[in-house]
Every structure is written in C-alpha cells, then in structure tokens.
Amino acid sequence: MSTFGGLHTAYSGLNAARAAIEVTGQNISNATTAGYTRQRVTQESVGATGAGASIFVSGTNIGTGVSITGVQRIDDQMVDQRLRSATASSNYWSVASGTMDTVEASLGEPSDTGLSATLGDFWASWQALSNNPTLESAGQSVISEATKLTAQIASGYQTAATNWSQARDTAVDTVARINTTAQQIAQLNTAIRVTVAGGGSANELIDQRATLIGSLSGMTGATVRNNTDSTVDVIVGGYTMVGSGAARQLAVVGAASLPNAAASPVHVEWADKPGTTVEIDGGSLAGSLTSLAPAAAGGTGGPFAEQAALYNSLATNLAAKVNAVHATGTNSTGATNLAFFSFSAGSPAATGLTLVPTTLAGIATGASGSGAANGSLADAIGKIGDAADGPDRVWASYVVNVGTQARNATTQATLTSATLTTATTAQSSQNAVDLDEETTNLITFQHAYQGAARMMTAIDEMLDVLINRTGLVGR
After folding, report:
1. Which of 44, 126, 276, 471 gives a 20 to 30 Å CA spacing to 95?
2. C-alpha–C-alpha distance, residues 151 and 197, integer Å
C-alpha cells in the first residue's frame, strides 16, 4: 500500500465511525418511539488491493481500511413471532372474559332484584292465595308477581339480544380495522421492496410494517412469511391476506340479530370470494365471533345465544309447569281447563310469554269440584318452585354455570396476559434502545473517529516531509 493509500484507509475509518455515530444518534433520538427497533452499522475490513509488496514493507500486503455494508435492525424473528402469538391469545381471552363478565353481570345474581328472588316472590304469592282463595287482593298479588316475572324474563332475553348486537358491531368494526391495516402493510411492502432494490435502508419502514403486523396478528392471529426481497406475506386463516404489494379484504356475513343467529351464524368471508369462510385462528376477532356463535347442545354455544336460549327454555318450562297444574283446577265460577300463561305467536318464548287472567276470577285456585273456597291447587302451584326439574333449578344451574365459565375465562385472561408481558419483555431486551449502551457506543465511535483523524494527520505530516523536505540537504 502506498503512502497515499494510507489516506484512503484513514478516510474509510472516518466514514465508518461517522456512520456509527449517526446511527447511534438515531437510536438515542428514538429511545421512546413506539415500535422502533435499534440499529447498528455493519462493516467489514477491506483487504489489500494488489499482490505486489510495498518496497518499504517487503513481503507484506496491508489491508486498505473498512467498508460499510449496511445498517442492521437488531431483531429476532422468533421472538417477534412469539410476541405476536402471545398478543393474539391474550386478546382472544380478553374478549372472552369480557363477554362472560357481561353475561354474569346481566343476571343480577345474587340480589333482591334477581330472577331467583322474583321466582320466589311468584311462588310465595300462590301460597298466600292458597290461604285466602276468595280474596281479590291475593289474586291481584299473583297477577302482579306473574307480570313482573314475565317482564323480567323478557328483559333478560332482550339484554342478551342487545349484547349480541353490540358484539356483532364490534366484529364489524374490527374487520374494518383489519382491512385498513392489511392495505397499509401491502403499501409498505411495496415501498420497502423499492427502497431495498435501490440500495437504500428501509429500516424505519420495516419498523412501521412490524407494528402494523403486530396489530393485525392481535386481531386475527395472523402469521408471517418473510420473502427474499424484504417483503412479507401475512397469513390469516391459512390463506395469504397480504402479499408483496396487494391485500385481500374480509367481510362479516350472517344474521343481523340474535333470533336469526341459529339459521345464519355470523362468520367472516373473503370479500373477493363470497361463500369462502375464513377460519380466524385467534385474536380479538376470534373472541367476538365466539361470542356471536349460536346456541348448541350441552350449552357450549356462544354465551349470548346460550343466555337467550336459557330464557326461552325458562319461559317454556315455567308455562308448562304452571299450566299443567292450573288446567286441572277450577276458578270461583267452577270453570276448568284454564290456562295461566300463553305465548304470543311469532315471538321467542321469552318475549312472547304472557299472562292470561286479569282478575281473580280467571285464576284456578282449587281442585275441580272442591268449591270456590278451596285453595289446594294454588298451594300445589306454589310448590312448583321446589321441584327438581322446575324453573328455579334450571335458573340456579345456569347461574352457577355462568359463574364457573366467567372465572375460567378470567383465569385464562390473566395467564395469557402474563405470557404477553413475558414475550413483550423478551422482545424489548432484544430490540429496545438501551441509553447506557448507546452512550458507551457513542464514546467508542468518537474515539474511533478521533483515531482515524489522527492517522490522517500523521500521514499528511509524512507526505509533507517527503514532498517539501526530501532532497534539501546540501543546498
């Protein structure tokens, strides 16, 4: 290497140190920027350019400095994938837990105004009527308690239907965000590909894309496949939603109201391919779709549909039990085969349950042929509340089951949240900016710059001696 070549070596050192200082400054500036991944300059030594040895350093070929090969993001794809998976799981159970909490809160149990208390008051009014079967006020008490009971059952069903509709709206909003996010990822894919192909650094664009992918995964459980041109494919439900420069769209289809959920379950399809269901693997959207599922055998369907089905079953059970006994009795005029409850045509049982009698005269209180003062039948109806298969037991069993499901969902939400925290910490330790480390690096690169500058000064002095002073002896 010639003496002049030493200037190039020193200059390459200046460039490398300056680039490292600039990247360190970028890291420090973005220490609190959400989604930023720390960077570092990658470099490699440059070997001797020729095989000939220097006449001053016989037989030795000296390298010619350092070359900057790029600016690298310090990330780990496996750590990133674990974080995305943990986010999807945590979001799913957060929605599931919130759904069960909503259902449990709407039951209002235990309380003095819950359905258990209302059922108790209803049976108690029959017991009171059995003691005074000819007392109009006792009959009006039965009618009043029955009216309150039917209204509460209908209200419970309507609450479930309203919550179901709100969950569907949430699913629609989530899908809209998913579609927008997918489009943004596709646009960034294009920008990244063009930038990298032109030899530029796309690290900041990749950071933006990674943040969007994390959001998309949190909603859908999406996974990522990396391509050689620095673009990514985003996989949702086993199909590519985002390619190198294009994004597919999702659409929510199915029933618009709870009563129709069984006939047309709510699900997600590809907007460009109607009829093709997208199986969402996880995330908040999967949680919403689970809450919208129709009722199923064994009570394993969607929480809101199961709640509505319970109210329908309760109304049917209540009417069947009471009417079966009531029809065998007689009222004050001797009429028999009287119905106490009926159902409105075209309505769900819970909202269609209505009361037939409006006065004591329409209520059967005694056994057929026993006379107006006999209250044995009213007493028998009052004891339905104690039946093993009566509405009270049906309701109590459901309340306990909801409580169990709510606790289980809360436990899962807590566990997955802890897992998410661990995954977030792991990623932060990998790619977050450590100001202490960056400060240390800054000092190192400053000294490297100073050293390269000092080398350039030394070579300059050597050349000055060679050019301006050599050959002056004897003049």
Report:
1. 276
2. 69
What sign results for the dihedral spanned by CA atoms 133, 139, 145, 146? positive
Q: Which pLDDT value is given to residue 275?
A: 93
Nearest to 293 by CA among 254, 241, 235, 336: 254
DSSP reduced 3-state for 202: coil
Q: Looking at the structure, do residues 99 and 189 belong to the same domain, yes or no?
A: yes
Q: What is the pLDDT of residue 14?
A: 95
Q: Are 273 and 262 in contact (CB under 8 A)?
A: no
User: Is residue 241 domain-resident?
Assistant: yes
Contact 244, 193 (CB under 8 A): yes
* 208 shares a domain with 144: yes
Contacts of 404 (CB under 8 A, 6+ apart): none
Residues 189 and 46 in one domain: no
Contacts of 1 (CB under 8 A, 6+ apart): 9, 48, 49, 54, 61, 62, 64
Amino acid at residue number 392: D
What 3 state SS string does 374-405 have?
A: CCHHHHHHHHHHHCCCCHHHHHHHHHHHHHHH
Helix H segments across 50-135? 77-107, 115-131
Overall pTM surpassing 0.70 (yes/no): yes
CB atoms inside a 10 Å sphere around CB 408: 14
DSSP class of residue 187?
H
Residue 122 CB neighbours (<10 A): 27
Task: Judge whether residue 106 has pLDDT over 60.
Answer: yes
Residues 136 and 64 reside in one and the same domain: no
Mean pLDDT of the residues in the chain: 93
Q: Which residue type does 275 have? A: G
Phi, psi of 357 (to 5 degrees): -70, 150
Cα gap 339→234, rounded to integer Å: 61
